[in-house]
Amino acid sequence: MSTLLKKNFKIGLIQLSSGSDKQKNLAHAREKVLEAAKAGANVIVLPECFNSPYGCQYFPDYAESIEPSPPSKEDSPSWHMLSSAAAETNTYIVGASIPELEPKTKKYFNTAFVFNPEGELLATHRKTHLFDIDIPGKIKFIESDVLSAGNKVTIVDLPEYGKIGLAICYDVRFPELAMIAARKGAFLLVYPGAFNTTTGPMHWSLQARARAMDNQVYVAMCSPARDTEATYHAYGHTMVVNPNADVLAELEEKEDIAYADIDGSKIDETRKGIPLYTQRRFDVYPDVSAGKVRYEE
Ligand SMILES: NC(=O)CC(=O)C(=O)O
């Protein structure tokens, strides 16, 4: 058995097609979770903003409050759908993400959840790096016009399997989060994310493979399906990459589910062949996981 992963399992990533009707989005997401579980997935991932279209103009209307925990069904129907689907299917669900309204501060966040097979919430992650970019003539998107940023590295212990690192979309461009999670023992980094048709072809696969290669861990990136009628055109290409940076599964742009086997021996084999973990020179440069890190396990 692997040093990091207690038991091999199948991951299912749902490249969900969502529209403007939240109730329909939730019902549809639930159906797809049942489908993935029926196909044998033990850990199921949903994409960034699965209960709404992706765009700053939508966040306030679709936002839910998740405090106190558990929230009421009225305050957070998405939370309750994820919890009951996890319990019904006996799976772990990375239910990511939804716009969250923090009642106390009236701030909005882009928040992902992890539920266990009993339907209990194990962790939340608020997108830590907001998607503020301006590529002239191509795309301008300023998430910070509406959203506030989370402020921690999120590492979640799935008791049956081991630790995963969880972050959202633009977070993947900041290798520090991945390095910290991997050095704290994560075997898999999960990124629900909605790249677009400009940045997706440039960097989606490169980011996934780079985070996997640098850290010798599995990486799972889960996108919404592309909707060309929407204001934001998601790239799609949901993918799973192994610790040697090989792409194990990749979708196109339409709705579908990607499956991959997560095998602990592949991590050990990769790290034995190329032993980065014993060769780092922390006498020459600092270890980002050793300093003052705000993280949650
Ligand atoms: N949507 C995002 O948060 C990030 C993205 O599209 C990109 O980094 O490119």
Automatic annotation (TrEMBL):
EC number: 3.5.1.3
Main EC class the enzyme belongs to: hydrolase
Domain of life according to the entry: Eukaryota
UniProt KW keywords: Hydrolase
Protein name: Omega-amidase nit3
Organism: Neophaeococcomyces mojaviensis
